[in-house]
Amino acid sequence: MSRKAHRNGIKKPKTHRYPSTRGWFPRLTTMFRSTLCLRISSMSNEQVDPKFMRNQRYAKHGSERALREARAAAQSA
């Protein structure tokens, strides 16, 4: 790497383990087209169904509650 590369610091790429289920904001492409061109092309434009997201949230809460109750039962026994 050259000296110029270190002037702004060499940063790790901002990656996430799971892609977003809510999609991305479409105006972002017109606002920052030159700087985010590569990042936006790799992002998914599709959004998961809102009904599925709502159900997923409630299912997660229910499984946490069941786990809590199971731990309490195991501790008292």
TrEMBL record:
<protein>
    <recommendedName>
        <fullName>60S ribosomal protein L29</fullName>
    </recommendedName>
</protein>
<dbReference type="GO" id="GO:0003735">
    <property type="term" value="F:structural constituent of ribosome"/>
</dbReference>
<dbReference type="Pfam" id="PF01779">
    <property type="entry name" value="Ribosomal_L29e"/>
</dbReference>
<dbReference type="InterPro" id="IPR002673">
    <property type="entry name" value="Ribosomal_eL29"/>
</dbReference>
<feature type="region of interest" description="Disordered">
    <location>
        <begin position="1"/>
        <end position="22"/>
    </location>
</feature>
<dbReference type="GO" id="GO:0002181">
    <property type="term" value="P:cytoplasmic translation"/>
</dbReference>
<keyword id="KW-0689">Ribosomal protein</keyword>
<keyword id="KW-0687">Ribonucleoprotein</keyword>
<dbReference type="GO" id="GO:0022625">
    <property type="term" value="C:cytosolic large ribosomal subunit"/>
</dbReference>
<comment type="similarity">
    <text>Belongs to the eukaryotic ribosomal protein eL29 family.</text>
</comment>
<feature type="compositionally biased region" description="Basic residues">
    <location>
        <begin position="1"/>
        <end position="19"/>
    </location>
</feature>
